[in-house]
Specification:
Number of strands: 16
Order of helices and strands: EEEHHEEHEHHHEEHEEEEEHEHHEEH
Strand order of the largest sheet: 7-16-15-12-13
Distance between the termini: 11 Å
Radius of gyration: 23 Å
Number of helices: 11
Helix content: 25-40%
Strand content: 15-25%
Shape: globular
Structural class: alpha/beta
């Protein structure tokens, strides 16, 4: 595949690069050059600002990659042509538009398929692919917290929790992950009586002491990158006996919560083993059918190798990962090279 045409690039308000290009096969007998890559993106303004940072745009441009903004108000078939479509729009309408477009243009790589992303938009289904993973003999044990899904009638929650045998305190999370700030609102419930104050639909997860450290494992294609973040403090017996009610929890995913340079107990701060993370990444890529996601993982306090996955997010805040512009550019180039080799081989 060869991409050649005039490419007009200009900075958008969000700092993104606009480009236009034409796709055509090489002339017979012509020397085939490495392809340029046009990446169409459909992202929220917030995502554009955090992801399409100047350092990424500059490095990508040097490597022949152009980012093109997709106008959702216009038919997708009238835009492009694209080699890759990068998106994080949650509406049903966009999902149908993208599915129809990919059916007409199977040569375009969609990152990632909407039906696969939908799996992560519900916290009940999100962890199902993790629950039966058997990595216990692979540098550690990977588990999921016991959890309960509540869809209605908050007054019945204390009874349902007691019947399920869940141990307090419980973390309450919205059931649906729809890209809004509300989807990330977390609460900690200390006693059964306060559970009826919660607002379904939601997921209740047992809280696991983990030394106040969260491991955010970022997946970009076959690359795995992990960073430490400060998390929620441990809950002890005194807290349980002297606390009551439901408490709103702060978000712990912000860059300001980085714990990479903090002076921490080595037993708490030690990163999960690289072989375990790479195996986990491979398994989940295959099971989820996704190439861009991150895993929120904690290590149970007092253990060396028992880990819990508490959340999985599609197309997370890669801008917070050190050197992300190199990782993502290499990922896009790998996709281009793969398509280029398939063209040369005629497959």
């Amino acid at each position: 595949m060869r991409l050649h045409a005039e490419v007009l690039e200009e900075k958008e308000e969000e700092g993104a690069v606009m480009a236009s290009a034409a796709l055509s096969p090489p002339l017979i007998g012509a020397t085939m050059a490495a392809p340029r890559l046009v990446v169409g993106y459909a992202l929220t303004k917030k995502k554009v600002k955090s992801f399409l940072q100047p350092n990424l745009l500059l490095l990508a441009r040097k490597n022949g990659i152009s980012f093109v903004s997709i106008d959702e108000s216009l038919p997708l078939s009238e835009q492009g042509p694209f080699d890759i479509i990068l998106h994080k729009i949650t509406s049903k309408e966009w999902q149908h538009v993208l599915e129809d477009y990919h059916e007409e243009h199977p040569e375009v790589t969609v990152l990632d398929p909407p039906n696969a992303i939908q799996h992560l938009n519900n916290r009940q289904s999100m962890l199902e692919e993790v629950a039966d993973l058997n990595l216990s003999n692979f540098y550690g044990e990977v588990c999921t917290p016991r959890q309960l899904v509540i869809t209605k009638d908050p007054s019945s929650i204390p009874t349902v929790v007691a019947m399920a045998g869940l141990t307090l305190p419980l973390v309450a999370k919205p059931l649906v992950v729809d890209g809004t700030s509300k989807a990330h609102e977390l609460y900690l419930a200390y006693d059964e009586a306060s559970l009826s104050m919660l607002d379904p639909p939601l997921v209740l997860q047992e809280f696991i002491n983990h030394g106040g450290i969260l491991f955010k494992v970022y997946i970009i294609g076959e690359t795995v990158q992990v960073v430490r973040r400060f998390s929620l403090p441990d809950v002890n017996t005194y807290d349980l006996l002297n606390s009551a009610g439901v408490y709103r929890l702060p978000r712990v995913s912000c860059a300001a919560a980085s714990a990479d340079d903090a002076d921490l107990d080595p037993l708490i701060a030690e990163l999960p083993p690289r072989p375990l993370l790479e195996k986990l990444g491979r398994e989940l890529r295959g099971r989820l059918g996704l190439r861009l996601f991150n895993i929120d993982m904690i290590r149970e306090l007092g253990t060396k190798d028992r880990y819990y996955i508490i959340d999985i997010n599609y197309f997370p805040g890669y801008g917070k990962v050190p050197g992300y512009e190199h990782i993502f550019t290499d990922f896009l180039l790998t996709l281009a090279q793969s398509k280029y080799k398939r063209y040369l081989s005629g497959t």
